[in-house]
């Protein structure tokens, strides 16, 4: 059935995006390279990414790589913010990458930009998190601050941290 196939493709795309955002938050360069450039081929930008982003630009093949990189830069920026990266770092990195995307003219530039994106965001996340709280605890702390007037339950906080209540309790005791 065509509708079920379309639903499956859409669901797969959101799953891929979730895994991508998680790899960014964890500053996992290896996972990001594996997901985005499995065959070190910029034209594919991963089969899943191709299915879920590139099809939107089919009539403008010359700009499809740039458009995908703009989308990726946005996903990286939002994910890095969720990892606790301060706005000044976010702006600086995002702005530099946007300028590089604008100047890009060939496949080699595309590889360089994707490398810059992965390395800049991941290195900044690691620098900010060294000696500080993990991304899970940072997310929970932001959630608590944003919801001080609400009833806060361990189960809800564990959902925010994408972990079990028991693991969150151990992390919180260890880091806080």
Describe the structure.
- The termini are far apart.
- With 176 residues, the protein is mainly alpha-helical.
- α7 crosses α8.
- The mean pLDDT is 81.
- The protein has 9 helices and no strands.
- It is 74% helix and 0% strand.
Describe the structure concisely.
With 176 residues, this protein is mostly helical. It is built from nine helices and no strands.
Structure annotation, total helices = 9
* Oligomer type: single chain
Mean pLDDT over the residues: 81
Summing up helix and strand content along with how strands pair, one would put the structural category as mainly alpha
Share of helix, binned: over 70%
Topology:
Layout: H1 2-25, H2 29-36, H3 47-52, H4 61-82, H5 87-103, H6 107-129, H7 135-146, H8 154-161, H9 165-175
Helix pairs in contact: 1-4, 4-5, 4-6, 5-6, 7-8, 8-9
Features:
mainly alpha, globular, 9 helices
């Amino acid at each position: 059935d065509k509708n079920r196939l379309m639903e499956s493709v859409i669901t797969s795309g959101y799953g891929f995006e979730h895994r991508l955002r998680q790899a960014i938050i964890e500053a996992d360069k290896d996972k990001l390279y594996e997901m985005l450039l499995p065959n070190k081929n910029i034209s594919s930008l991963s089969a899943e990414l191709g299915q879920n982003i590139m099809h939107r630009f089919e009539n403008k093949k010359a700009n499809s790589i740039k458009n995908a990189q703009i989308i990726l830069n946005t996903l990286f920026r939002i994910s890095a913010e969720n990892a606790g990266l301060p706005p000044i770092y976010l702006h600086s990195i995002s702005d530099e990458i946007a300028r590089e995307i604008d100047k890009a003219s060939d496949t080699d530039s595309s590889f360089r930009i994707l490398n810059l994106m992965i390395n800049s965001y991941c290195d900044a996340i690691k620098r900010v998190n060294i000696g500080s709280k993990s991304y899970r605890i940072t997310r929970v702390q932001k959630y608590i601050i944003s919801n001080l007037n609400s009833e806060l339950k361990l189960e809800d906080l564990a959902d925010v941290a994408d972990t079990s209540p028991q693991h969150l309790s151990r992390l919180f005791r260890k880091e806080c």
